[in-house]
């Protein structure tokens, strides 16, 4: 009998210096042998961060006996030659600019949350991020046109929408939001997450759970959730529960992320991202990594277990080995996956991954009131992408003026002028 050669591939990880996304990817990459013999090329413009994450990758690769070939480079174009999968977790001057995205609107009277995917912050994340992402796309179209691009960076919906509309790159966005929503639900149900299955459709950070079921029996858990929610602590995820009781389905993924899209989103907690805690956590994480690499501290147990987050490695393995693997949730260019939302929109739905690529699983139309609510945000995202693609300040102002979070024309103009200037080095036409 002839022996078959194991199928291998080349994976390029852009922004591999990102400690949080990098470690999550590593936990999935190096706890499976499905990609043994494949090449993982780590790319970042920060040599020190790249060196750290490369050393950690080699350590975990050996510890898990995963059998990957690890490369590193700061040369993106060289890395992309021959790639079949490109994973992106790049962010531009992340914390400094994100802090401005929240603080400048707040200074001008805009009440909002996080300032990342919706409201003025979502617009400026889009304006500065899309030009760089389009640089990636042009390189992929030239150097590895058949590669699957897997985006992990925010603003997810706008990245996928922009690439879907203006490029030929096969694009998929991945987010762990649906699993966070499941966690909230399980606190109310009093059930373990592993025993609960959720199916959602909608927008990134604004999916609606069409089905909540007992994983073993298939029993519909919505009646139990509705009953238990009535007596659960009212301080627990209050905005999500108000929408659940108003619209009849549970929205993802949390009050702060979902609240970015709503004029009353601050009612779930008016706050920005906790940058101080983030910096503290990154310092602790980097120290743990340095100790593990040096051999002076043990590798934490959870680093050698699969993550509960994004499913990039599962998508790659499913496509590579034609496994017809079910992926709980991903962001794709709509084109009918949710029939009562615009076709030129990025939506989040379940997926199937096999050798033919990534296939959205349609759960049918959303309930009409929910679709109408999402149409408002759909228009904001579409106009924001147009503003970024054309580097148009006029379109950017229009995007602010149709955003439900913005309640003042004077504030919109002042926010636009101030944040446009702060982001000017990164804003340029994409096409």
Automatic annotation (TrEMBL):
<keyword id="KW-0464">Manganese</keyword>
<dbReference type="InterPro" id="IPR053715">
    <property type="entry name" value="GH4_Enzyme_sf"/>
</dbReference>
<dbReference type="Pfam" id="PF11975">
    <property type="entry name" value="Glyco_hydro_4C"/>
</dbReference>
<dbReference type="InterPro" id="IPR015955">
    <property type="entry name" value="Lactate_DH/Glyco_Ohase_4_C"/>
</dbReference>
<dbReference type="InterPro" id="IPR001088">
    <property type="entry name" value="Glyco_hydro_4"/>
</dbReference>
<protein>
    <submittedName>
        <fullName>Alpha-glucosidase/alpha-galactosidase</fullName>
    </submittedName>
</protein>
<dbReference type="Pfam" id="PF02056">
    <property type="entry name" value="Glyco_hydro_4"/>
</dbReference>
<keyword id="KW-0378">Hydrolase</keyword>
<dbReference type="InterPro" id="IPR022616">
    <property type="entry name" value="Glyco_hydro_4_C"/>
</dbReference>
<comment type="similarity">
    <text>Belongs to the glycosyl hydrolase 4 family.</text>
</comment>
<dbReference type="InterPro" id="IPR036291">
    <property type="entry name" value="NAD(P)-bd_dom_sf"/>
</dbReference>
<feature type="domain" description="Glycosyl hydrolase family 4 C-terminal">
    <location>
        <begin position="201"/>
        <end position="406"/>
    </location>
</feature>
<keyword id="KW-0520">NAD</keyword>
<keyword id="KW-0326">Glycosidase</keyword>
<keyword id="KW-0479">Metal-binding</keyword>
<keyword id="KW-0119">Carbohydrate metabolism</keyword>
